[in-house]
Design a protein that fits this description.
Layout lengths: L6 H7 L1 H16 L1 H56 L16
Length: about 100
């Protein structure tokens, strides 16, 4: 009914689909242990992926904190250098030649 075909029409006009459906259902019923094995394997993989995700999140957090700390240190160093340049302005000192050194 959910496919828009009545049960009678399925039996009468779509016998091949009906047989394929019965085959698939019987194969699935005959091997429940295989389905359980697959489900257990998928659960293990999901658990491992969650662990990897937690480790990856911790690694991203670590690198982000390191980046922030480095950025703040560079900003502080730039401010200190700007302050030093402002306080100690470079002065041009003319060089005087000594009387004995003429070129």
């Amino acid at each position: 009914e959910s496919a828009g075909i009545s049960r009678n029409a399925l039996y009468r006009y779509h016998r091949d689909v009906l047989l394929a459906l019965h085959d698939a259902q019987s194969r699935h019923r005959d091997r429940p242990e295989a389905a359980k094995r697959v489900a257990a394997q998928l659960r293990r993989e999901n658990r491992e992926l969650r662990e990897h995700l937690a480790k990856l999140a911790a690694l991203v957090d670590h690198y982000f904190a390191a980046w922030q700390e480095t950025r703040l240190q560079l900003e502080r160093r730039d401010r200190e250098l700007a302050d030093l340049r402002r306080i100690h302005r470079p002065q041009v000192i003319p060089l005087q030649r000594s009387p004995g050194n003429r070129s």
